[in-house]
Automatic annotation (TrEMBL):
Limits of the Carboxymuconolactone decarboxylase-like domain: 7-87
SUPFAM superfamilies the record matches: AhpD-like
A family per Pfam: CMD
Entry keyword set: Oxidoreductase, Peroxidase
UniProt-recorded name of the protein: Alkylhydroperoxidase
Amino acid sequence: MKENSEAYATLGKLDTLGRESSIPKKLQELIKIYASSLNHCAFCIDMHTKEALENGESIQRVVGVNAWREAPFYSDQERVVLELVEEVTFIHQHGVSDAVYSELEKHYDEKQIGELYLLIATINAYNRLGIMSQLQPKEDK
């Protein structure tokens, strides 16, 4: 990070745009936790779990996000976003399906869909940088 601070600052600007978007803060954190989990980024899982709880998210929904399909406590609007997170995170496998995009359009306008894309792309970039840099969360005391 210190060797390429300008690049990290630019990524930070994208993160700020995502945080200031119209997407609810709780959903933003679920996006970040789920993508980080799919990418196995322990540092980001730790950080965003704590941020979600600080923003009033329930422990049940934070812990259950990896089983969102089976869990009854996510709305249809959240479910399609979590599906999008998965498809974007694993975009190399099948791309983003027309079915997911069609479902997104039922719940979000074009601006919000763009904001979701930004949030998902940014956390995926952070995950990859965190993993490559071998960032580790500090153990809670």
